[in-house]
Design a protein that fits this description.
heterodimer, A: 324 residues, mainly alpha, 73% helix, globular, disordered N terminus, B: mainly alpha
């Protein structure tokens, strides 16, 4: 599994027990086995397939988020841009009768523009990215709400609904896409110089600038990418729900940040991996699935996820805080 | 001329000018603004928000934030209903709800100052948890209907033409003004917030002050929740929605800064008044609430950018970057 990411700069870090990298695999496996043993209807193809299907949508919000957290930036707008993708897809399909592919591309381009603007503001004025993206989140959420209200719960035409439920080797294509992207990104982050620079920027931005890396430009691009890819995930989710809805992407940022941090990313930057973020999303889904199987109220699930986030951040603080 | 210059340079000047401009605009736009009903609803809007904004300003001066106040307010509203249904007397209800607010504040303060978690992440997770907690309780109070008359009086009782909650706000304004301006502890906050490292070297105990600030913020959010829900007269799950954003914008418009070390109690009130006048304008212009969210989000971004820009300029002048 993804070993060695983010450790390129310091050698003495290897001596320490690498807590963050492995914990996600252990706890996911433990939870999986626990649920298989205690719930009779858990371990069957349909249930696990539907969990993975759900994970495959949210994963798209985690890609850009992970790239940004590696650079020490937090993008809280992924959830609202996820919803934005779906709302805009609905808008283009309903209003201009565009084919669903074109509608998705347009929605992603608009999201890209929003992400680039947010990234520009963060880099240009050296702002706290979490603060800026909370503002973006709020504005975009209001916009989504306005758009979705306009449609009044209309169903998408069948061609805009059915493309998402196409199977390949009896597994949904979005799951395959997720796995392929995760593996390719993982290899790139470990091997390609272009992607490795994200870790350098996360470790020490000022030094990378001295060495001639265009750190600001990389960050802006990643903000754009994060927004566009989240919007793509939102389009798929909306197609699955069959209509644009305000619940698409609601509170998603909390699960994604939790997923990334229990997947070994550090909010101090310099660490993180796409495969482990994917496992983090899987873990959160598994947990919610398990709690639902145990008839635990969805609001209590919210409290549990929040507690896990705080605990994960605390462990991150204990194990990953930069010295000095 | 000297006096004019001094007033313009005050941190509160911008918010005061913005408020004056909006009042003028609303007066010119139509007669409804100065009507009794509108002024009452404006008061009921400003007072709870300003009560919370004092806490937020306290934190901002220290260089921290609290995003969880909206869920604390909601929790306070729902707990008031819960305790009313349990048949507790009103003083006990208020006391217990305020204690719940203190607990939320202590949790935040513990996470931020003792554990050392980034304030934004800590309080956004407690916001998420607090909302979950409030909504689990919500099912039990959904069908409650109206509060008792004596509880409602907390929110809509008047004294000399102003609501009780407005008097509470004014009292807190005086208290915070005195604390921040005339006590050594209050004055040291600006120093701590402006330069945390130097303050630590000089032996100021940041941790305890930060813990105190979060606790006070939680307490004030619960107080605002009780007053607001008493004014609405029945529990609602929409109480306090997005109010943490409103408070944050209000404090920065009123002269606070995300970098810490700046701000005043009067600025908080003026900032909140500005935000309430804006909402009032939207309502009088019959703008949809969703549209208001977009505008508030955009204002937040603008405020963050302007604040960041001025900090950047200051740091360049000081030669720090």
């Amino acid at each position: 599994m993804a070993e060695g990411t983010g450790r390129t700069l310091s050698t003495n870090e290897k001596k320490k027990f690498d807590f963050g990298s492995w914990i996600i695999i252990y706890i996911s496996a433990a939870l999986f086995i626990f649920l298989s043993l205690t719930r009779s209807n858990f371990f069957n193809f349909n249930n696990i397939h539907s969990i993975l299907y759900g994970v495959s949508f949210n994963f798209f919000a985690a890609i850009g988020f992970t790239l940004l957290i590696i650079m020490g930036e937090l993008d809280m707008s992924v959830g609202s841009l996820f919803g934005f993708g779906g709302a805009m897809m609905g808008y283009f399909v309903f209003t201009y009768r565009l084919p669903v592919g074109a509608a998705m591309v347009l929605a992603m381009l608009l999201a890209l523009a929003i992400g680039l603007c947010a990234g520009f503001l963060v880099v240009q004025f050296r702002l706290n990215s979490m603060m800026v993206t909370i503002g973006v989140m709020m504005a975009v959420k209001g916009f989504n709400w306005m758009m979705v209200n306009k449609f009044g719960g209309r169903q998408l035409p069948s061609e805009a609904r059915n493309f998402v439920s196409v199977d390949f080797l009896s597994i949904r294509w979005s799951i395959w896409l997720m796995l392929v992207i995760a593996i390719i990104m993982e290899i790139l982050l470990n091997k390609s110089w272009h992607f490795k620079q994200l870790y350098y920027i996360g470790h020490n931005m000022d030094t990378t600038i001295l060495y001639g890396l265009k750190a600001g430009r990389v960050k802006i691009l990643c903000f754009g990418l994060s927004a566009a890819v989240s919007a793509f995930g939102g389009c798929l989710m909306t197609a699955r729900l069959a209509r644009p809805d305000v619940t698409v992407g609601a509170n998603l940022e909390i699960s994604i940040i939790t997923a990334a941090v229990i997947g070994g990313a550090s909010i101090f930057g310099g660490r993180g991996s796409i495969v482990r973020s994917m496992l983090g999303v899987f873990f959160i889904f598994l947990l919610q699935n398990g709690m639902t199987a145990y008839n635990i109220d969805s609001y209590i699930q919210q409290i549990v996820v929040g507690t896990i986030l705080v605990a994960a951040i605390y462990l991150d603080l204990r194990f990953n805080r930069k010295k000095g | 001329m000297e006096a004019v210059n001094r007033i313009i340079k005050k941190n509160e000047f911008i918010s005061a000018a913005l408020c004056a401009a909006l009042v003028l605009l609303l007066t010119v736009a139509g007669g409804v603004f100065w009507s009794r009903g509108n002024l009452d609803s404006l008061q009921a809007n400003i007072a709870p928000t300003a009560i919370m904004a004092f806490g937020m300003m306290f934190l901002l001066i220290l260089g921290y934030f609290d995003l969880s106040i909206s869920s604390t307010m909601l929790l306070a509203g729902i707990l008031s209903a819960k305790f009313t249904m349990m048949g507790l007397p009103i003083p006990a209800i208020v006391l217990l709800v305020l204690l719940a607010g203190v607990a939320m504040g202590l949790l935040n303060g513990f996470l931020v100052s003792v554990v050392g978690i980034n304030a934004l992440i800590a309080t956004i997770s407690t916001q998420y948890m607090g909302y979950g907690l409030a909504m689990t309780l919500w099912d039990g109070v959904r069908g409650m209907g109206r509060f008792s008359d004596s509880f409602v009086a907390l929110g809509s009782g008047k004294f000399l033409g102003l609501y009780w909650m407005t008097w509470v706000m004014l009292l807190l304004l005086a208290g915070f003004w005195y604390f921040l301006h005339s006590t050594p502890t209050g004055r040291s906050l600006y120093f701590v917030g402006g330069n945390r490292e130097a303050a630590k070297l000089m032996g100021f105990n940041n941790r305890r002050v930060v813990l105190l600030a979060y606790t006070v913020t939680g307490l004030l959010a619960a107080l605002a929740g009780v007053l607001a829900v008493a004014r609405i007269e029945s529990p609602t799950q929409y109480l306090g929605e997005n109010i943490h954003m409103t408070c944050m914008i209000a404090c920065v418009v009123g002269g606070g800064s995300f970098a810490g070390g700046k701000g005043s109690a009067l600025g908080a009130v003026l900032g909140v008044t500005f935000m309430s006048l804006m909402t009032n304008m939207f309502t009088l212009l019959k703008l949809k609430p969703q549209f208001q969210n977009i505008i508030v989000g955009l204002i937040l971004i603008a405020v963050i950018v302007l604040d960041g820009w001025s900090n950047l300029k200051k740091m360049r002048e000081q030669g720090k970057i």
